[in-house]
């Protein structure tokens, strides 16, 4: 029997490593998924190093399905320590791939995490311009 | 750890007596009811007997029972078959927005064909009012289809009162009820209910999957959906699923067994205790649906700041099978159409957990659920950042 969700999805869903809020976040992104109404809030801490902007820390809150939670956590895992440029290049297929797979109807859930990241970066840019 | 099944509204396991009754028809008594040799006639005898059992249960004539391949098919036959058979050029149909998709989708299909369909409002508890039925009836109304008990929130509709109202207004209007979830628990005497058509399903009552039945009152004009060899009085062609039909009848006989009537009282007590305990232990939770007009086995609770799907997956990891509402939710992202119709916001509608009890459910099962559920909700609220 193939379970509905892969082992990796279940693991990240039950024990997310990047759960919570960053009090002194440099950027915050809050996005909703139009397909299902799920909501995700993403917090990033950015460090500048030799003109590179590195995502030093990242945390999330997600109100949503198991896939939304697992992909949120996986997205955080994937971008932590990367430059903003690198982080934005990660697409939903990368997230799904890292999680083994997702049921077809749940593919859209991984889009939430990417949108959240984009929103957090935009917020960071806005704030750092001031 | 042993698995705990708490999703009896989705489907039920086969009762061992039902299995025993079916077995000969899967083995040596494999005849086709249309054959004139003894083996065929024996199969015909078996489904005639089954028809008599259903007729006894529903309080109707045996020839008023049409066996189908599912309740979905029976609902389709009831809705499409009756409306497409009427000569009225502008037929009007009344139903509710909380019906199973097996009624809603044929109604949508009728709408596409130009038929006017009215969807009655339901109140916060998921109940239809007589006043709204009365208001919706029109001179060209040909069919009213209202489910007896809802599969998601267990709301029991006042079918008998609606039946009386309809017949008083015009004896020509047909009244159909989808009784799939009700059969196990409620009086289904069609005369008392005042219905002209009634749907039931075997796999919700400890019978086999893939068998349903439609009661069609004598004299009603109805057009088949399936044409062929003319079985089931021409309304449902195709060689009968003899073992399945025998299983359906056997499951109905089990319902009539006083032992199970007593068990239903116990189930109701379990339900009430479970609802009380969940609401006591877990903050920001509320019961969906009516407490009074509710199926004895249905619990449907929303938890703020949590999505139902996530609860179901987390429970499954602990060996407990429950549901978010409709079994179709694995195919659709939309929040429960039932909760939305009851006036809940999308967020509230996403947060519901349906627990449905059954004959094998024990107090120990529910104790275990009560132990496992609170930490799951707490954790998921942590994940969503929900502040109590
Ligand atoms: C109220 C109701 N009607 C109809 C059905 C469809 O029954 P079946 O699975 O036999 O097609 C179900 C169950 O899914 C139901 O709960
Ligand atoms: S279904 Fe909502 S994000 Fe997964």
From TrEMBL, chain A:
The name this protein goes by in its record: Iron-sulfur cluster assembly scaffold protein
Pfam families, A to Z: NifU_N (PF01592)
InterPro entries, alphabetized: NIF_FeS_clus_asmbl_NifU_N
GO molecular function terms listed in the Swiss-Prot or TrEMBL record: iron ion binding; iron-sulfur cluster binding
Residue ranges of domain NIF system FeS cluster assembly NifU N-terminal in the record: 5-129
GO BP terms: iron-sulfur cluster assembly
UniProt source species: Candidatus Nealsonbacteria bacterium RIFCSPLOWO2_01_FULL_43_32
Automatic annotation (TrEMBL), chain B:
EC category name: transferase
Keywords carried by this UniProt record: Iron, Iron-sulfur, Metal-binding, Pyridoxal phosphate, Transferase
Cofactor(s) of this protein: pyridoxal 5'-phosphate
Sequence ranges assigned to domain Aminotransferase class V in this UniProt record: 4-369
UniProt feature coiled coil, ranges: none
EC number(s) stated in the UniProt entry for this protein: 2.8.1.7
Keyword Zinc annotated: no
Catalytic activity of the protein: (sulfur carrier)-H + L-cysteine = (sulfur carrier)-SH + L-alanine
Origin: domain of life: Bacteria
Keyword Hydrolase part of the UniProt annotation: no
InterPro entries reported in the protein's UniProt record: Aminotrans_V_dom, Aminotrans_V_PyrdxlP_BS, Cysteine_dSase, PyrdxlP-dep_Trfase, PyrdxlP-dep_Trfase_major, PyrdxlP-dep_Trfase_small
GO MF: cysteine desulfurase activity; iron-sulfur cluster binding; metal ion binding
Family the UniProt entry places it in: Belongs to the class-V pyridoxal-phosphate-dependent aminotransferase family. NifS/IscS subfamily.
Protein name per the record: cysteine desulfurase
Source organism per UniProt: Candidatus Nealsonbacteria bacterium RIFCSPLOWO2_01_FULL_43_32
């Amino acid at each position: 029997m193939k379970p509905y969700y892969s082992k990796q999805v279940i693991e990240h869903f039950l024990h997310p490593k990047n759960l919570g809020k960053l009090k002194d976040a440099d950027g915050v992104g809050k996005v909703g998924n139009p397909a299902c109404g799920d909501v995700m809030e993403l917090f990033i801490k950015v460090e500048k190093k030799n003109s590179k902007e590195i995502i030093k820390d990242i945390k999330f809150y997600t109100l949503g399905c198991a896939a939304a939670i697992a992909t949120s956590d996986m997205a955080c895992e994937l971008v932590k320590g990367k430059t903003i440029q690198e982080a934005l290049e990660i697409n939903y297929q990368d997230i799904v791939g890292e999680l083994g797979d997702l049921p077809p109807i749940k593919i859209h859930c991984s889009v939430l995490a990417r949108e959240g990241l984009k929103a957090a970066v935009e917020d960071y840019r806005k704030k750092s311009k001031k | 750890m042993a698995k705990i099944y708490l999703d009896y509204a989705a489907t039920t396991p086969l009762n061992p007596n039902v299995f025993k009754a079916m077995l000969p028809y899967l083995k040596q008594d494999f005849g086709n009811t249309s054959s004139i040799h003894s083996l065929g006639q024996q199969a015909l005898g078996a489904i005639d007997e089954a028809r008599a059992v259903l007729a006894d249960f529903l309080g109707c004539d045996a020839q008023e029972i049409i066996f189908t391949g599912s309740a979905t098919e029976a609902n389709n036959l009831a809705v499409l078959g009756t409306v497409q058979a009427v000569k009225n050029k502008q037929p009007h149909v009344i139903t509710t927005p909380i019906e199973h998709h097996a009624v809603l989708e044929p109604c949508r299909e009728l709408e596409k064909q130009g038929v006017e369909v009215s969807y009655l409002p339901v109140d916060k508890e998921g109940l239809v009012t007589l006043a709204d039925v009365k208001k919706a009836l029109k001179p060209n109304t040909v069919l009213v289809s209202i489910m007896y008990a809802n599969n998601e929130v267990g709301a029991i509709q006042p079918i008998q009162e609606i039946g009386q109202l309809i017949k008083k207004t015009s004896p020509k209007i047909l009244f159909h009820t989808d009784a799939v979830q009700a059969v196990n628990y409620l009086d289904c005497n069609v005369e008392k209910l005042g219905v002209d058509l009634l749907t039931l399903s075997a796999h919700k009552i400890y019978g086999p999957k893939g068998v349903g039945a439609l009661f069609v009152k004598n004299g009603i004009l109805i057009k088949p959906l399936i044409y062929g060899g003319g079985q089931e009085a021409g309304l449902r062609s195709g060689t009968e699923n003899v073992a399945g039909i025998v299983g359906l009848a056997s499951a109905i006989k089990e319902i009539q067994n006083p032992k199970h009537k007593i068990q239903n009282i116990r189930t109701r007590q379990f339900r009430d205790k479970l609802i009380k305990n969940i609401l006591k232990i877990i903050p920001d939770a509320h019961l969906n649906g009516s407490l009074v007009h509710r199926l004895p086995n249905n619990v449907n609770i929303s938890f703020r700041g949590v999505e139902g799907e996530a609860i179901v997956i987390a429970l499954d990891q602990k060996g407990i099978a429950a549901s978010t509402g409709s079994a179709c939710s694995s195919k659709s992202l939309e929040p429960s159409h039932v909760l939305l119709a009851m006036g809940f916001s999308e967020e509230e509608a996403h947060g519901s957990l349906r627990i449905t009890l059954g004959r094998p459910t024990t107090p120990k099962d529910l104790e275990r659920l009560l132990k496992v559920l609170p930490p799951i909700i707490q954790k998921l609220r942590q994940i969503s950042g929900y502040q109590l």
